[in-house]
Design goal:
heterodimer; A: 114 residues; alpha+beta; Glutaredoxin; 4 helices; 19% strand; B: three-stranded antiparallel sheet; 9 strands
């Protein structure tokens, strides 16, 4: 399926494993930096992306980038990507394409409330 | 049908020591002591008895593996945690036939060379614990506890506490968290020593098998799964409760003849034959034999024989939502894949139930299951999947109505 190039929401996993690796403060920092940049993209918490061992997991939607293992030091790069820059390469290099498809399909089919 | 366990009338009280002796109780122990441990293993293996806790592992093989271990001491654990929703069979058996369990446990201890046995019993089952305590005292007075000591450890009311290695953790004084397997308890169980862990019901068959022989036991049940089995009929049939029937009895006979059909007089829309982790068996599939392979062909399992019956006019969505929420809440939290799967499945079902998903959302369940398959330390990771997948197969109208309207279809 051809995906939209738009990014409306930045979905951050808040489940046990992602939260234990710092996903909640990362989401708060994303919210802060996006607001400071004047972006209309919303940061939305979500329960799980079925990739707990890879977290913290962040999905840019509907465009479809899955960032796995995002750290606080990556927030600036993610915001720059959302603002039209290049993706943060080291967070997308090793993604399992089948798992990425499953994550995006579940969101496409209505798993997440925006 | 010749009962092996329920040899008294259903409304008769607990079987006393004298009553048990009168039907041949504790003769198996004397026979085993005379013939040696290998004779018990031979008879048990030939009988084909499978564990009645849900997994159905061959009991003779489990005991043989433990008997072969050179390490000492060894232990026997009888699992009566019984946290499976809807199941009452272990409780009933412990309350009514405590001596069959005690003799079975002593036979296990003698056969594998164990010095101690633990009865792991749901702490809420106070009557069962009282009956077992009396039976232990009577067996001791009769001189049977020279083989091994027998004590009771109360089990917490938590689903995962019934998993065999979680039970070992509790007996050792820790929280009920399943261990990574292998090693299996047959090699490294209680306190790291070789241990036989079987369901309470499984032990109760052993004295009769040893006393009357494997051929007699094979006279009932199926070739793959001989003997009888306990089933728990739910509250919505005319005669709820625990019944003993040959393995291979049809689901229809269990529900209609033994349960008396639904108390409401309505038709059966579907049945979960083996607890909440089994798959639905549809109304036109009720002639299936209650055995492992026939149920597997329908995407279901025999489990511990605890039935849940969906009635005509009821919506499956409420039930599968409850099941998905149950497994999410009962996951112990140790394994990321299990956290992921149980929570994502619960979310999928909630979204569909509330009319907030697309039809393809249900199609993601098998893919999600494939990602999580085998990744947990216990089997809970795969437990919510069969009832959800089978509901999508059998009741697409219920699901479609929820997707469109967010509520159950009219009855």
């Amino acid at each position: 399926m051809e995906r939209s190039k738009e990014i409306d929401v930045c979905i951050v996993c808040h489940n046990v494993d992602c939260a234990a690796r710092g996903s909640i403060p990362i989401g708060e920092e994303l919210t802060k930096q996006l607001a400071a940049a004047g972006s209309s993209v919303r940061v939305v918490p979500h329960l799980c992306f079925s990739a707990c061992e890879e977290g913290p997991n962040i999905v840019l939607y509907p465009q479809g980038t899955w960032y796995k293992g995002a750290q606080m030091s990556d927030v600036g790069g993610i915001v720059a990507h959302i603002q039209g820059g290049e993706p943060v390469q080291h967070l997308i290099e090793d993604v399992d394409p089948a798992l990425r498809d499953l994550i995006l399909t579940m969101i496409d089919m209505g798993l997440v409330d925006f | 049908m010749e009962p092996i366990l329920f040899t008294k009338a259903p409304d008769a009280g607990p079987q006393t020591f004298d009553e048990y002796r009168a039907e041949g109780g504790y003769e198996a122990l004397a026979k085993a002591l005379a013939a040696g441990p290998q004779s018990v293993l031979n008879e048990l293996t030939a009988s084909g008895l499978r564990g009645r806790g849900g997994a159905g592992f061959p009991t003779g093989q489990k005991w043989s593996l433990t008997a072969q271990e050179p390490a000492r001491p060894k232990y026997v654990v009888a699992n009566g945690g019984e946290d499976e929703p809807g199941s009452q069979k272990d409780r009933f058996l412990m309350e009514r036939y405590p001596h069959k369990i005690i003799e079975g446990v002593l036979l296990a201890a003698y056969t594998i060379g164990a010095s101690a046995a633990v009865l792991y019993v749901n702490a809420l089952f106070t009557d069962a614990i009282a009956q077992l305590e009396s039976a232990i005292a009577e067996a001791s007075t009769a001189g049977h506890l020279t083989i091994a000591s027998v004590r009771i450890t109360p089990a917490p009311q938590q689903y995962v506490a019934g998993e065999d290695t979680a039970a070992l953790e509790v007996i050792e004084g820790r929280d009920p968290l399943p261990r990574m397997k292998p090693p299996f308890p047959t090699t490294a169980g209680l306190y790291g020593q070789p241990t036989v862990v079987n369901n309470i019901e499984t032990f109760a068959y052993v004295p009769s098998i040893v006393r009357r022989g494997a051929d007699w036991f094979r006279g009932q049940g199926t070739a793959d799964n001989p003997g009888t089995m306990l089933f728990t009929l739910p509250a919505n049939v005319r005669r709820p409760g625990v019944v003993e029937l040959p393995v291979g009895t049809t689901l229809r006979a269990l529900v209609e003849e033994h349960g008396g059909g639904l108390a409401s007089g309505r038709g059966v829309k579907g049945v979960l034959p083996g607890g909440p982790s089994s798959g639905w068996v549809g109304a036109d599939e009720l002639d299936v034999a209650l055995d492992r392979e026939p149920l597997a062909q329908l995407g279901s399992t025999l489990g511990c024989g605890a039935l849940r019956i969906l009635e005509d006019g009821e919506c499956v969505m409420e039930v599968i939502d409850e099941i998905a929420q149950f497994f999410m809440a009962e996951a112990c939290g140790q394994c990321p894949a299990c956290n992921m799967e149980t929570q994502t499945l619960a979310k999928i079902i909630t979204q569909v139930k509330n009319g907030r998903g697309m039809p393809q959302l249900m199609d993601q369940i098998p893919k999600l299951a494939a990602f999580a398959e085998g990744k947990g330390q216990c089997s809970l990771v795969s437990m919510p999947v069969p009832p959800l997948i089978s509901a999508a197969r059998l009741y697409p109208e219920d699901i479609a109505h929820h997707l469109e309207h967010g509520v159950c279809p009219p009855p």
